[in-house]
Write a structure and sequence with these properties.
The protein is an alpha/beta fold. The protein has one domain (about 5-230): Rossmann fold (3-Layer(aba) Sandwich), CATH 3.40.50. Helix content is about 45%, strand content about 20%. Helix 1 (about 15-25) crosses helix 7 and helix 4 (about 100-125) packs parallel to helix 5. It is globular, with a radius of gyration of 17 Å.
């Protein structure tokens, strides 16, 4: 698609990968709604990049339903979902509580499903749409302390394959991107502490640009899945 024709929702759009993806779409002339929980940060990001802010906690079903309906009204249409909202909780198995595990799935997996479900209803009616799920290389390989996060991302990958099978006949492209470590506030929010910038590692703009490259492929084709790694991280 031509990005100037995009009418997109970007969840987790107030910072990091979501914000940079929204910035690229807006810069190309497309319309974009960014959604996140924190209103002040969301409004600031929207003003900075030229997006429409709609507060939403993707773990809450009514807010998700309202998000999609309001976005359709605000943009006079809707054809792109960037399913990006998510966070990380890391703990060894013996220290992992059921509530922590459930909350990780509530946001990263069930939240992604609910936004995709409401989006797919609209895309099916118009016989066109695009869904890009932002997963992680953690959705391909487990690691120590990653039980909850890895499970949420493996599940997202499985759902992506199901949606692709269901929606392809409606001219809906379902894609997935798996970034390796990206230098955003993710690690700090996960309780890992602040990290110094490392010029050899990926930044949010790298992933935002790649997402837009996936979207920009002519509608007759699509790239089901791609991974992005730092070339030589040190």
């Amino acid at each position: 698609m031509d990005l100037k024709d995009a009418k997109a929702i970007v969840t987790g759009g107030s910072s990091g990968i979501g914000k940079e993806t929204a910035r690229h779409i807006a810069k190309a002339g497309g319309k974009v709604v960014i959604a996140a929980r924190g209103k002040d940060k969301l409004n600031h990001a929207a003003n900075e990049i030229g997006a429409i802010p709609i507060p939403c906690d993707v773990g809450k079903e009514k807010q998700v339903i309202d998000l999609v309906l309001e976005a359709i009204d605000e943009m006079d249409g809707y054809n792109v979902l960037i399913n990006n909202a998510g966070y990380g909780h890391f703990s060894k198995l013996v220290n992992l509580s059921a509530s922590e595990f459930e909350e990780q799935l509530r946001v990263n997996t069930i939240g992604a499903m609910m936004v995709a479900r409401e989006s797919a209803k609209h895309f099916i009616r118009q016989d066109y749409g695009n869904i890009i799920n932002v997963s992680s290389t953690a959705g391909k390989r487990g690691f120590e302390g990653g039980t909850a996060y890895v499970a949420s991302k493996f599940a997202l990958g499985g759902m992506t394959e199901c949606w692709r099978s269901e929606l392809r006949s409606h001219n809906i492209r379902v894609m997935q991107i798996n970034p390796s470590e990206v230098q955003t506030s993710f690690a700090e929010n996960a309780g890992m502490g602040e990290r110094k910038f490392n010029e050899t590692k990926l930044i949010a703009e790298d992933i935002g640009k790649t997402i837009c490259d996936l979207l920009s492929l002519p509608d007759r084709g699509f790239i089901p899945e791609t991974s992005v790694w730092a070339t030589n991280p040190k």
